[in-house]
Design brief:
By secondary structure, the chain is an alpha/beta fold. The chain contains six helices and five strands; from the N terminus they run E-H-E-H-E-H-E-H-E-H-H. Strands 3-2-1-4-5 form a five-stranded parallel beta sheet. Strand 2, helix 2 (47-58) and strand 3 form a beta-alpha-beta unit. The radius of gyration is 16 Å and the shape is globular.
């Protein structure tokens, strides 16, 4: 069984992340979406909340073999613990490449048996980032086109803004 790990902060999960998860699910038997517990990032949502939002958002997509987990520490150690052979990373634009390339090379240095696979989301999501979604939500903007319904509702509740009543 070929297992890939898709790590990230997912604070919050976006439709671009979902697109990468769906693409990875076509390539691997098992995909673990792994929420990184990185206190240095000062996330809006706790690790448990992000895991819950991912699980709720993935529930309606019918992706067998996709699961959600969280991890602390080195990614390559987590990949080995899960029996993984690859790390999946999303690339939105050329500006993402330099940082992701450095991470991939460092992970290879730490564990040569772990490959890094770069996947691009649909072009309609190439501009999308969690940071931008949070900023739009903080300012009361409609994020329904950018995030799944459970995330939209959680953002509205956390930021005390009105959740637009748009179809999910």
């Amino acid at each position: 069984m070929r297992t890939a790990i898709y790590p990230g902060s997912f604070d919050p999960l976006t439709n671009g992340h979902l697109d990468v998860i769906q693409r990875a699910a076509k390539l691997f038997d098992r995909v673990v979406v792994a929420v990184a517990n990185n206190a240095a990032k000062s996330p809006l949502f706790s690790t448990d909340e992000r895991v819950g939002l991912l699980a709720a958002s993935l529930a309606s997509h019918g992706l067998p073999g996709v699961s959600v987990d969280h991890f602390d520490g080195l990614l390559v150690d987590y990949v080995a613990k899960q029996g993984g052979c690859a790390v999946v990373r999303g690339l939105r634009a050329v500006s993402d490449f330099e940082f992701e390339f450095q991470l991939a090379l460092m992970n290879r240095k730490l564990n040569e048996s772990v490959e890094t696979i770069f996947l691009m989301p649909k072009d309609t999501y190439s501009f999308l980032s969690s940071r931008l979604v949070k900023e739009i939500a903080r300012l009361g903007g409609d994020v329904s086109a950018f995030v799944p319904a459970p995330v939209r509702e959680a953002l509205a509740a956390r930021l005390k803004t009105a959740a637009p009543n748009f179809p999910s």
